[in-house]
Write a sequence for this structure.
């Protein structure tokens, strides 16, 4: 049972674990901990910090759990960056930290490093679909679609370049990907245009309305006793000499036994407060939401456009682009238009001129894998961030890994793969 708030110089709420961040990772962790009987408080900012939790594609795709840096990425990236509206942009930021990060990412495009990351993420993603089924069975209320993901290609050559990535899907407990002709793709999705020449069917993958997942997890957390604070004030973190933790914001102090930092790209600054730094940068992406006249029923990946398409009960979402550097909160109209124009070629219906535009900052590491574990130099401060485009997919697995580490001292190969000190 939680202690009452005490009116002193600071109002105190004594809890066992304080979680910083209320995105998919933070809420999944709060839910997992509270189910185990732990006392949990979640503290998050109300500021516009480019949160990606509500504007992502909402895909649950363990079959696509691969690092962002990949073989051939450099050659492809040059072509993309020559186009002002292409799917990738790297701003020329003359700062040593930015240059160092991009250099480390470049080194991680080797085949050996990519295959190591692919295996690590695929193993970590085992059971992902079952985790979300469990959420449903436990009464977490969110919009879930089990219609799979269709990958659309304008050429057989483009398909071949992707097909090999899924050859080992059965090794990780997933269904084998099936090849489709353009005609077969249109039989499944009549809204696809004649430009689609081939496709892949990832039939056992899921998609969600991202906002509904956040709302559902928060509601379920509240029902089992999790306390939430949202603040516009700066959030400060420290670990005391007696190893207890303190999180302060405005006139509030939340003291407890553990802190979990799960604040996306803001996690780096919070780790800095307890004396640790690591390479973590934002990868900006955009979403375009609009009402669809022609009903798309499957999540789609438009390969040449590098755009994810997610149908929900109330809108169709297009999500894409990756921007490194520049103003983190500025919306670039050229990039937004690029998503719409490149996607339009795949559809037999026009995309509305004024969709609702969203922007989010993905937390990126140089090797494209998350960081999960205890923050070096601390006793009871932990972090879970850097999931790139897999935050929704890997949220439940991340929560379970942290729970095992903190409450049962369970060691895991995953903790080695996702160690904070690997850089």
């Amino acid at each position: 049972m939680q202690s009452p708030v005490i009116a002193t110089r600071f109002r105190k709420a004594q809890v066992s674990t304080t979680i910083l961040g209320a995105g998919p990772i933070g809420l999944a962790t709060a839910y997992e901990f509270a189910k185990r009987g732990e006392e949990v408080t979640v503290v998050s900012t109300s500021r516009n910090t480019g949160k990606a939790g509500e504007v992502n594609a909402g895909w649950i795709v363990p079959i696509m759990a691969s690092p962002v840096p990949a073989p051939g990425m450099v050659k492809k990236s040059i072509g993309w960056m020559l186009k002002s509206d292409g799917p990738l942009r790297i701003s020329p930021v003359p700062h040593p930290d930015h240059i160092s990060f991009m250099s480390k990412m470049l080194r991680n495009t080797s085949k050996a490093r990519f295959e190591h990351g692919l295996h690590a993420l695929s193993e970590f993603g085992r059971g992902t679909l079952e985790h979300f089924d469990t959420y449903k069975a436990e009464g977490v209320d969110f919009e879930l679609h089990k219609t799979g993901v269709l990958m659309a290609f304008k050429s057989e050559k483009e398909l071949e370049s992707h097909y090999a990535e899924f050859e080992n899907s059965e090794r990780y407990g997933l269904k084998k990907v099936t090849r489709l002709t353009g005609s077969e793709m249109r039989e499944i999705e009549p809204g696809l245009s004649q430009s689609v020449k081939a496709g892949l069917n990832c039939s056992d993958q899921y998609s969600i309305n991202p906002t509904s997942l956040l709302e559902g997890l928060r509601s379920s957390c509240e029902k089992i006793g999790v306390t939430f604070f949202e603040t516009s004030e700066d959030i400060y973190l420290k670990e005391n000499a007696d190893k207890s933790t303190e999180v302060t914001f405005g006139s509030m102090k939340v003291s407890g036994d553990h802190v979990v930092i799960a604040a996306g790209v803001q996690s780096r600054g919070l780790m800095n407060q307890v004396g640790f730094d690591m390479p973590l940068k934002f990868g900006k992406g955009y979403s375009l939401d609009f009402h669809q006249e022609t009903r798309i029923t499957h999540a789609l990946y438009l390969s040449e456009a590098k755009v994810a398409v997610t149908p929900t009960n109330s809108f169709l979402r297009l999500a894409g682009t990756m921007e490194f550097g520049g103003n983190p909160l500025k919306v670039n109209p050229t990039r937004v238009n690029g998503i719409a124009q490149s996607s339009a070629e795949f559809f037999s219906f026009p995309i509305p001129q004024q969709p609702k535009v969203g922007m989010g900052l993905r937390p990126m590491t140089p090797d494209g894998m998350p960081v999960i574990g205890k923050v070096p130099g601390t006793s009871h401060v932990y972090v879970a961030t850097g999931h790139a485009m897999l935050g929704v997919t890997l949220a439940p697995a991340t929560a379970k890994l942290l729970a095992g580490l903190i409450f049962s001292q369970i060691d895991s190969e995953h903790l080695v793969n996702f160690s904070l000190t690997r850089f």
Summary: The mean pLDDT is 92. The domain at 63-93+144-208+280-364 is CATH 3.30.9.10 (D-Amino Acid Oxidase; Chain A, domain 2). The first helix runs from residue 24 to 35.
